[in-house]
Design brief:
single chain, hpI Integrase, Chain A, 11 strands, 46% helix
Length: 553
């Protein structure tokens, strides 16, 4: 993915970017015509709705009879809550769920006295009261952030946003999704690359090609696995800009009605989808793009579902990763094992790639609003949970995923894995043909002109180090590694701080997604992270051969 941000977000839809279509009463009438059992008028403050699924009546009261605010007109609050309620109904959320959401948003407005700074302590005490479990506190924060995101014209003091985000992020941390190590991800990535570059019979192709599509698509576009499985057979459209992919969006839907967003995809992905379409259509027509040719039988064989994909991924690990290429899966294993580049400690889960995609979008310098739309989030603030993943998962090996360098290997069972796994050639040892050796304080330089492109010799491609150098200067070299790790941490913190600014102030013209200066800062900061990653990776690779030989003093 390049920093020119070629993905097209113009046709995507999320709650915070939705315009209020038509008058409130017209929208109420449209819902009634569509069969929603709603007893309401735009001028009434109590609306009743009957949930046929649960055979239960629900109501929501929009009035603020016991509340007055000098700063805000309560009529504005009522209109906002009604409009949000209608929008949730139009998007087919369950009745009980959305009634609860609106009631809690109303409680927050009252407890904060219209987000008055003088009431912030009282608001925290009574809205986020201590007896609640951490996950309940997080849900209350998430709900409120979604509502504030919807209220485009409602100005909320930064102190309130900081407070709510703190509860959303902090109490979400214990439940952070555990991701596989970057080594396990890189091994799987290389296996997919090598396996699908080889010739296969049609049966093999149909068996496993959904894995290839999933890996190449969902690592770039952060869609849920259920949405990937629901891609329709005719999901591609072509116009003068290129190929667009229709993405099904289905989270929290009351009647499982699917809405579609369209994003511009690369010609490479489009070509792989078209090729797959041709092959499966020649065997049997299907409603979904993916088919169940060799996976678990389904009640509706023309529809691909999550169970089909989960079974297929497990089969790929067993038959291809382990049996064909000789890797050993140690997940949930209690047996003793020896250190080996063939060890895999954690399988990749179907939804892990959605998290990888969010991280990669951040590291490419995308604005939080763009990321939220592409991820199908109801609120821009939903991506706060992924900030923790960036700090947890990022390390020097991640550079292999970011640089996307082609690795030309024949068979994974050759000597490729014997010493250092997934290491690009970085001239870590001395070449006998080298004739220029300009001594330095540590190591030597092989550039006769010494035209240094960097400030420090050890970051230059012309720098070399001998075993004696490594032994004699071990402590200093370790300090250099520690310093580079600190630089990487500072770069990550800077990028996260910019993202947080974009989240909190995304309604401000200075920090919104159309502001070129702020977008430039995001791209520049993301480049600094990748540069720091790359420099750290080079250093570790140059020292690792000596570390593995156990020669350090």
């Amino acid at each position: 993915m390049e920093n020119n941000h070629s993905l097209d977000f113009s046709s995507t839809s999320t709650h915070f970017n939705e315009s209020l279509r038509g008058t409130l009463q017209d929208r109420i009438n449209s819902l009634k015509d569509a069969g929603v059992n709603l007893t309401a008028a735009a001028s009434d403050n109590r609306w009743n709705i009957y949930d046929e699924y649960f055979s239960q009546s629900n109501y929501v009261d929009f009035s603020f009879d016991s509340f007055a605010s000098k700063k805000f007109d309560t009529n504005q609050f009522i209109l906002l809550l009604k409009s949000w309620f209608i929008l949730l109904l139009e998007n087919n959320y369950s009745f009980r769920y959305l009634v609860n959401k609106v009631r809690r948003a109303k409680d927050a407005l009252i407890l904060s006295k219209g987000f008055n700074l003088e009431a912030i302590d009282e608001f925290e005490l009574n809205y986020f009261f201590k007896d609640l479990r951490p996950n309940s506190l997080q849900r209350k924060a998430s709900l409120l952030l979604e509502f504030l995101d919807f209220c485009q014209d409602l100005i909320v003091p930064e102190e309130y946003l900081e407070l709510i985000l703190r509860y959303y992020q902090t109490h979400n941390s214990p439940a952070i999704r555990k991701l596989p190590s970057s080594h396990d991800v890189l091994k799987f990535s290389l296996i997919v690359e090598v396996y699908f570059s080889s010739e296969h019979t049609d049966k093999e192709y149909l068996d496993y090609y959904p894995i290839y599509l999933w890996w190449n698509l969902t690592n770039i576009i952060p869609i849920r696995i259920s949405e990937f499985c629901n891609l329709q057979f005719d999901c591609l459209t072509l116009n003068k800009e290129g190929y667009f992919l229709a993405l099904p969006r289905s989270k929290y839907l009351r009647n499982r009605k699917i809405n579609y967003d369209k994003v511009l995809i690369s010609n490479k992905i489009a070509k792989s989808i078209k090729l797959y379409q041709q092959k499966i259509y020649s065997i049997k027509p299907t409603k979904t793009l993916l088919q169940t040719y060799s996976t678990t039988q389904n009640v509706k064989p023309e529809v691909f579902n999550y169970s089909n994909f989960k079974n297929l991924l497990n089969k790929f690990y067993n038959e291809i990763v382990c049996e064909k290429y000789g890797f050993k899966l140690l997940e949930n294993s209690s047996e003793l094992y020896t250190q080996s580049p063939y060890n895999i400690f954690r399988k990749i889960r179907p939804n892990d790639t959605r998290h990888f995609a969010f991280l990669n979008l951040m590291l490419q310098g995308y604005h939080p609003s763009e990321i939220a739309r592409l991820g199908g989030h109801n609120s821009i603030y939903s991506q706060m949970a992924y900030h923790n993943h960036l700090e947890y998962w990022i390390d020097s090996d991640l550079i292999k995923l970011l640089t996307n360098q082609k690795r030309h290997i024949g068979d994974l069972s050759n000597e490729f894995f014997k010493e250092i796994i997934f290491k690009n050639a970085m001239n870590t040892t001395m070449d006998v043909s080298e004739v220029v050796k300009i001594p330095l304080e540590i190591g030597y330089c092989i550039d006769p002109l010494q035209d240094c492109p960097v400030d420090e010799h050890y970051l230059c491609k012309h720098w070399r180090i001998t075993l004696d150098d490594y032994q004699n200067h071990y402590d200093k070299l370790q300090n250099i590694i520690d310093n580079q790790e600190s630089i990487l941490k500072l770069c990550i913190d800077k990028l996260l701080a910019l993202h947080k600014t974009g989240l909190i102030h995304h309604k401000n013209d200075v920090f919104d997604e159309t502001n070129s200066q702020f977008n430039y800062q995001l791209v520049k900061s993301s480049k600094e992270v990748k540069d720091a990653l790359y420099q750290l990776a080079k250093l570790k690779e140059r020292f690792e051969v000596y570390e593995k030989s156990g020669t350090q003093t």
